[in-house]
Amino acid sequence: MTGVRERTSTAAPTDRSQLRFLRPADGLPDEGEPGRIGTGQVLRLITRQLFAVPVTDDPVGRPVPDVAREVPTVENAGISADGRTWRVRVRSGVYWDAQRAREVGATDVVRGLKRTAHPLARPMRPYFGALIEGLADYYRRYDEEFGHWAAHAPALAQFSHLTRVPGLRVEGDTVVLRLTEPASDLIDLLATGYAALAPREYDYYVPDSPELYRCNPACGPYRIARQLTPGGDFVLEPNPRWDPATDPIRQRTASRIDVVASSGDQPLDDATAFGVRSWDLPASPARFGGTGCSYYLSATPGGAAWSLAARRALTWAVDRAALAEAARAAGAVGAAAQHGVLQPGDPGAAPDTDAAPDNGDLTRGRHLLADAGLTPGSRLVLAVPVGSRPAVVAAAVAGVFIRYGVDVVTVSAGEPGADLTLREWTPRWAGNANRDLLHRIWPADGGSGDPAGVATEALRTLDPATATTLWRRFDRMATADLRLVPLIVADWPRTRANAVATGVARW
């Protein structure tokens, strides 16, 4: 991960400030979240997408046009009546800092989306592949052709050029996307770093190779001044081809940015001044939607907590306030009780007036646990994901149930015999990331009573008001269903920065 702090400058007073980004010397911090790219904040400064999330302290801020001229709608003919064809016009006047300046085009958008076939972008495959017509088949053929990422660059480029994706088409300055179904969150997906534009120079080199980093044209406000090598230090300098009049998202306030290995715990300053979210940006505990890390309990079929009575007992017995305090004591910037499946602050989160108190209800919890067969002396086995943060939450859960005489024993996730599993979910992108929750966390069974059916309808609805109504219905149904027992949402350091700029440019 990267942070930023001011560096004492020895330059002349007329020189602009110089900034130093810091990253741990021993690799990425313990996040327990696959697909996170540690230099995402920096890469946000050298790359562009069709849409991007502006710098804001609003955790549910939606993407706005970046290289796109406007947000497509049915009214402006950018989206077809059936919601499946999107036409996105590319903004003019945006240039690659190539050997000869070259204007960004729609082909760069298509090239970037095709590069999501690369293994480094694998976390996003289920989303792009499910939505863009023919892209899942493209991924399958890519894997059959190469099977790994050690192929020669000409072979990768030839495959990309010769293998057609029906859902990706270029018409002049317009990218035409044909979807398998309407998608109200497509703009959120296209604003991720995985959908960054890719210049034709990327075809000359293997993704994530030193050669690519030596020839990495930029279209953002900065460019690479010193060779970027995997795991090494690098320097960014102003990109002379960048025009602020064509970039509504980013700013350039530094004459130089260094990214260096750093050990130890060093203070970080807010980086919003030059267009990057800093992870120490204050956030209200009531508005975590899209940026927080949520924790849930799910019961194992046939386990001691599988019955609906047991799951209802859990939600009344757990002291969410104590869990939130434990998270804050372990370094969370903020933490709060979460009573619904959707994160607090999500526009679709439905307030539950009948929810248990934040600190639980000791008397009612004891009676409900007893009715479910969890009397004093009972034992529950809790499976916990790898990582120090889930371990903190799990220890706090065990501490709470000591009050009821119930012994909670923790084991590693995946071990047999668990009654409960602690689920951890940080959205993979900013904005509407509920598709990610459904894919990674929600234990769908496909039955007629599965609330996921309502969520799917919400994702297919392009009208924002209707979608919000459906998400609130899903949240009420999912919370009552108790397949997931919500615990808390925590704002851990670094999670907010990654929600904005994830993955860019390495493939």
UniProtKB/TrEMBL annotation:
Region entry Disordered, spans: 339-360
Compositional bias annotation for Low complexity: 344-360
InterPro entries, A to Z: SBP_5 (IPR039424), SBP_5_dom (IPR000914)
Subcellular location: Cell envelope
GO molecular function: peptide transmembrane transporter activity
Database matches in SUPFAM superfamilies: Periplasmic binding protein-like II (SSF53850)
Primary location recorded for the protein, binned into one broad class: other
Entry's Gene Ontology cellular component terms: cell envelope
Residues covered by the Solute-binding protein family domain: 63-395
GO biological process: one example: peptide transport
Cited Gene3D superfamilies: Dipeptide-binding Protein, Domain 3, Periplasmic binding protein-like II
The organism's place on the tree of life at top rank: Bacteria
Keyword annotations of the record: Signal, Transport
UniProt xrefs under PANTHER family: PERIPLASMIC BINDING COMPONENT OF ABC TRANSPORTER (PTHR30290), PERIPLASMIC OLIGOPEPTIDE-BINDING PROTEIN-RELATED (PTHR30290:SF10)
Family the entry assigns: Belongs to the bacterial solute-binding protein 5 family.
Name of this chain's protein: ABC transporter substrate-binding protein
Organism expressing this protein natively: Micromonospora sediminimaris
